[in-house]
Design goal:
Layout lengths: L6 H11 L8 E5 L10 E3 L2 E8 L2 H10 L6 E7 L3 H9 L12 H9 L3 E2 L7 H9 L13 E2 L1 H11 L10 H7 L3 H10 L3 H12 L1 H11 L3 H14 L8 H14 L6 H15 L9 H16 L13 H20 L3 H16 L10 H18 L9 H22 L6 H32 L11 E2 L3 H12 L2 E6 L4 H13 L3 E5 L7 E2 L6 H10 L7 H9 L2 H7 L5 E3 L1 H4 L8 H8 L5 E6 L1 H6 L17 H11 L2 E5 L5 E2 L4 E2 L10 E2 L8 E5 L9 E5 L4 E2 L7 E2 L5 H4 E2 L1 E5 L8 E3 L6 H4 L47 H6 L2 H8 L8 H13 L3 E2 L1 H8 L6 H12 L7 E3 L5 E3 L1 H8 L4
Length: 895
Amino acid sequence: MSNRVDDAVVRAIVSEALRDDPPPRWVALAARPEWRGSDALQVDDRRVEVLPCVSVLAVREALATRESSADTVSVILTDQDERELGEEVLARVWRSRLHSPTGWESAKHLFRVHTLDAALADDRWLVDLLVRVAPSRGYPPPPSGYLSRDEAWRAFLKHGLRVATEAPTLAHLVRWADTEDAAAAVRELADHASQIALALGETLGPAASLVAGMTFAGRGGDVMAGGLAADALWGPVDAGQVPITRARTRLEGWAGQGTLSDTVARAWGDAAVAAMAHVDLRGQDDRSLSWLERANELLEEMEAVDLASGSSVLRMGLEARLSELGREIGEFLDEPSELALDRVESAVARVEEHRSVGKRGPDRVRGQQARMALRLCRWRHRPTSGPRPDLASSSRAFVADGAWVDRARDVLHEGESVFALAEAYRRLIEIVDLDRRARDLAFGAALAEWATVAPTSSESLLPVERVLERVVAPLAQSQPVLLLVLDGLSYPEAQKLGRDLRDLGWRFRSPGGQPLPPVVAAFPTVTVVSRASLLTGSLRQGGQAEESAGFSAHPALVAASGARAPALFHKRDLRASDGLIAPEVRAAVLDPDRRVVGVVVNAIDDHLDKGTQIRRVDGIAAVKPLRPLLDAASEAGRIVVVVSDHGHILEHGSQVRSFKGAGERWRPATTAPDDDEVLLEGPRVVMGEGRIIAPAVETVRYTPMRKLGYHGGATPQEVLCPLMVLFQGGVSVEGWEPIDDRQPTWWTKRHVEVRVPAAAPSPRPVTHVEPSGQTSFFPEEPQAAEEVVDWSAYPWIPELLASPLWSQRRDSGGRASLDDGASARILSVLAQTQGTAPATVLAEALEVPATRVRGKLSALQQVLNVDGYSILKIEPDGTARLDRAMLATQFGLES
């Protein structure tokens, strides 16, 4: 009995026929004379007319009565054989014969090949479906003229299942399941659902059979949600728990595809997570939101809410991970230990693995908070020292450590909705606040004593009124300078700004590569005093007119400026909009004859005046005119000096005390200071007739209006002004060397305690030598000339330094050699860190910038690595590794 043909078979054969030249107008097929297909078939821009003919007479009648035209192909369907039709009839049809349209032959026509892969004989269903779903113009022919089984399968995935990728993965299939293409494939191919599911399982893994089974069962919309739930239930959780076993069993029944093995469930979950990687979590479409909502509902239905931490995509998973972090921080605060800190580290890592907290995720702030909480836990676990007794050391401690603590604490103040974590953050902040209060009170007392007399030129602090004389003018002698005064910039904000500036290619430099001295504001620490003092070079109170006049007449600036006087621009002059600054400002910055240009930027101080419900913007984005000013400075080859006139504190629950004539954070000295206030009097106190009282802590203000932040007080956050000197490539000044981005050890890693033993006799005195001859605009603090230390804990170090081979190799190094003191310090650090020490730890022990550590290590490496043996290795990140056993062998050490 002849086969019934459909649209696909007719199109396949007509498509092949039309390749002949000239193309035929009649095609005869040996088929059942029935037609249930379309009456408007089109192949290669030609209309196809199908004519069922039940007898020879019907065939002859069709040939006789139908008009033949160039744009139409007529297809005769007949169950008569060629002998009955006769040569006269056959002579008028394509290739003078009756064609038998089997799936196999049709596939050959559609792919334009002579041979099909023999393996397809076992997959006749696939061949038939390829004929059924063929595009109107057939398939692209394989270059070999041979259709392999893999090529046939890929063609079916594209044209049958309509999976829109050349090499689909299980993740592609999971996303496909809930599409209109999948729904159309289900409608057209449902009669072969089991065969398709089996084939998908063979090519993409058994989980693909589950996906196909659910899709052909009309549940394509559940595939993604089920996969996300599987990711949570088969994630890193204890499989032995009764609740997890129960939840997994329920999901297996819900999926309705038989046994759900661990392998299939994990693959399903991984594919769902991978599929969601293409979804922007900030701007999810309705379909993506429905997947996430349905997955959350599923976990609730499976009574698995408490097990959701396994999910790295679902919000329920994030909140579970945040709750776990809160518990771990709480346990660490109850009993601080290395083990408890390890658990906090692991919990933070799990939070950061969640997609929502990534750089583009909607919960990225929560990820930042988790990282800051970890840093504060490390800070809490470090060896502690008490408040510093004098203002210089207290200021340096704040810049090196306290400001970083404030930065982390400020992020935690953003708040958290997960109760366990919110409570942990509250406790952390409380600990930080207690420590900060003690240190701030000590700073305030030292400040009050320091303010009573005029600072001398030999101090290691830089008064704000001397910045122009000591920094800007000397630089302007060598290179044009742009001075950027960021009104109200604090050290924590400067850290974030510095990060962005480095990313933009600016390089921080200082005399000899040493940290720049802390700049101390004038008192009270308000704009009309401290900014006027900065820009005029003398302690005074004044506004923009006084600042401009004093700046243009400053003796040191005038001496460095030549014919063009220093120019100062204020906020009203900038008119920054659409990323541009006023033409006259840009022209001044680009003018090579204008050696000194100053610009006052009020963005930070203005922002502090806003209400507390406005979230602060970090980094360069917080200072709108900064980017175009820096671009102009870079174009002009200017050095950029960034400085603040004062810092600020943020509003974190301050209390109001009312005093007549008071500012935000200072008041007239009409009554004695309270325990949390200090009396500031002396030549640096510009207002209040030389005597004012200011809070030494953050929790006091004197004005009722609650704002985002305040200034005027005596805390290091307000008194100390960030100073940064920026160079672009190709610009240099003798003596000014790169300064590294120095962070406290606890900011990036665990604290590694490195101790230099107490003084005692040793076989070889260790001398601490500092490089001389560096250009410096700042006085250096006195250094001890010699340091003799006790190496009894590490006797091999003095033995090494006393060995003949050491002396020989050290002396042969010439100018590149390292003195014994620095060598001994590096070796002692490596001894205390089991032979491996990061560059930051070595820099801290050596009291040098991290950028100088590699040079010292290279010099030591030249001495130690005898005959090419790698006794001392230096990793690309600067980490040093010492092989003690090889060292002892090569240098003949007994200790």
